[in-house]
Specification:
It contains 13 helices and ten strands. The chain is of the alpha/beta class and 279 residues long. The strands form three sheets. The protein has a six-stranded parallel β-sheet with strand order 5-4-1-6-7-8, with helices on both faces. Strands 2-3 form a two-stranded antiparallel sheet. Strand 9 (263-265) and strand 10 (268-270) form a beta hairpin. Helix 3 crosses helix 4 (59-84) and helix 9 (172-180) packs parallel to helix 10. The two termini are 40 Å apart.
Length: 279
């Protein structure tokens, strides 16, 4: 595979924590006078509080109580996590070890803040920060998923181009965020609230049952996410763009449509490639 990094979501992807987030939001909403059904909340999980709360309550209620809700929900979540623990999905550690063995960077991209990540680590036993070569979280962004901010931050912190990465996530918001950040998504169903059709509709290229299923099909997943053997670094992408522009200029000089393309196959580049104008 020509990938250089795998970007992982955390909640619902590596950890079985989505249901705890839903219950924490139910309790928090009720504490502020809002009765919201768990299934209404479940489909919004994956967004950060800046997007989740107004999506459920509307802008007026968000303006009135949103900040208080966003401050209280992590505390309710921590209480639930302390009482029940957080399960690490099967084969997560083995998957991360295999990714590292293959020489790929492990990148964590989550809308959770530092405090929430500490809670997840403490009550799951998975050292999230320790497992990551690169970690992008709420402290690195202005807008949470489905905005692309966390994906862009993760890619930039990894010093890679989006084409060198693939995102693994369990929600359509992961797929939307990655898509607008230029990164391909592979979905997992273990988050519980979204089926394969939903994830594929949001942009996931293939969907697996869980991390164990992904591990069992890692070669296939890599080929799907990056079918070309070329490592599309930022420098390589800029080189291809320069060649495409050069081909466009040649076409314009010859009286053709000024549209150029540079075709790269492995390490070879067709520097004469040009889209001919229709007669």
């Amino acid at each position: 595979m020509a990938l250089d990094a795998i970007i992982f979501d955390v909640d619902g992807t590596l950890l079985d924590s989505n249901a705890l987030h839903v219950e924490a939001f139910v309790r928090t909403f009720e504490a502020h006078g809002y009765r919201v059904a768990p299934d209404r909340i479940a489909v919004e999980i994956g967004k950060g509080g800046d997007n989740l709360v107004p999506a459920i309550l509307g802008p007026s209620a968000d303006k009135k109580d949103g900040d208080a809700i966003r401050q209280q929900q992590p505390k309710e979540f921590a209480k639930l996590a302390a009482d029940r623990g957080i399960r690490v999905f099967p084969k997560v550690r083995e998957l991360l070890a295999e990714v590292r063995r293959r020489g790929l960077k492990i990148v964590i991209a989550t809308s959770s803040g530092k405090q929430q990540l500490e809670t997840l680590t403490r009550f799951s036993g998975l050292d999230i920060a320790g497992e990551a070569d690169v970690l992008a979280n709420a402290d690195d962004i202005e807008r949470s998923k489905p905005a692309p901010d966390v994906i862009v931050a993760a890619v930039n912190k990894a010093k890679l181009s989006p084409a060198q990465c693939v995102m693994i996530g369990d929600t359509p918001w992961d797929a939307e965020s990655a898509k607008h950040g230029g990164v391909i998504t592979l979905g997992v169903l273990c988050g519980g609230a979204n089926d394969a059709e939903t994830l594929m509709g949001a942009g996931a290229r293939r969907v697996y049952a869980d991390p164990a299923d992904l591990l069992a099909h890692l070669d296939e997943a890599g080929a799907i996410a990056s079918p070309s053997p070329t490592h599309l670094t930022q420098e390589r992408l800029e080189e291809l763009m320069r060649e495409a522009l050069s081909a466009a200029r040649e076409g314009m000089a010859d009286g053709e449509a000024p549209i150029g393309a540079a075709l790269a196959r492995g390490g070879l580049l067709d520097r004469r490639a040009r889209l001919e104008s229709p007669e």
